[in-house]
Amino acid sequence: MKETAIDIFGTHLQEPVTVLTNILIVLTCAIMYFKLNLQTSKPELKKHWRLFFIFFGTSALIGAFAHGFKSYFAEETFYYIWMLMNLSGIPITYFLHSANIELSDFTDKTKQLLHYIILAIILVFVVITILTNNFASVKINGGIAILFTIIVHVITWRKKVEGSGWIAFGFIFSISTMIIHTAKLSLSDWFNFKDISHVFMNIALFMIYAGVRRKLKYFPLD
Predict the structure, then answer these.
(1) Partners of 5 in the beta sheet?
(2) CA–CA distance from 99 to each of 47, 149, 153, 209 (Å)?
(3) 56: closest CA among 185, 177, 188, 164?
(4) Quick check: 65 and 59 in contact, CB under 8 A?
(5) Domain map of the chain by residue range?
(6) Measured between alpha carbons, how far is 166 from 63 in angstroms, rounded to an integer?
(7) Nearest residue to 85 via CA among 68, 66, 70
(8) 180: how many CB neighbours lie within 10 A of its CB?
(9) What is the pTM of this model?
(10) Which residues pair with 191 in a beta bridge?
(11) 7 - beta bridge partners?
(12) Which residues contact 69 (CB under 8 A, 6 or more apart)?
């Protein structure tokens, strides 16, 4: 597939649609971060979800920079920028796991133990990502977190916890982005699998946000 590029005010921008769709995710996540500053009896749950969105947006911002300005960097420098982009996905899964743990009925001691286990798994993926610098490790790590999140929220949906259905469906829908990206399903050079997966991810984020907002309102201050 031919790589697209445009020149804007003397700046050479590669993959402009990929950059644009990444920026849309950044804006979406920033808005959701501020909108989720709600009064709730589950402050830790709120904190984890807000950090999930802010790190998701940060990752998308790094992705926009990496895709758009790679022609300005030497190959070795770009290698480390790409690594930073891949590593930026790690905190997303950590805070997603943390939100899931916080939603459980486990004791504080068990929750702390689960946090340590998740942190150990995350560190393994950090090492793998540094050694391989391959986006595949990001997708595997994300896939594990998504599967766990779907299971948790299907269970809480069955318990009639408000918002759980939206979150579960949002993450189920997000799997389509991995399928599109892995299969490289593209409409054209100017709207390729990266761009399509970003659009689908933005839709999934709105579903997830709708569920998280309902869930935080489900746990009002006593």
Answers:
(1) 14
(2) 8, 9, 11, 13
(3) 177
(4) no
(5) 5-218
(6) 27
(7) 66
(8) 21
(9) 0.91
(10) 188
(11) 12
(12) 13, 14
Residue type, 2: K
Burial class (CB in 10 A: 0-12, 13-18, 19+), 71: exposed
Rg (CA), the chain: 18
Residue 24 CB neighbour total at 10 angstroms? 17
- Could you give the CA distance from residue 14 to residue 11 in angstroms, rounded to a whole number? 10
CB 68 within 8 A of CB 14: yes
- Per-residue confidence in pLDDT tens, the chain, 222 aa: 788 999 988 899 999 999 999 999 999 999 999 999 998 888 999 999 999 999 999 999 999 999 999 989 998 898 999 899 889 989 999 999 999 998 887 788 888 898 899 999 889 989 999 999 887 888 888 889 999 999 999 999 998 989 999 999 999 999 999 899 889 999 999 999 999 999 999 999 999 999 999 999 888 765
- Residue 41 one-letter amino acid: S
Beta strands in the chain (DSSP E): 5-8, 11-14
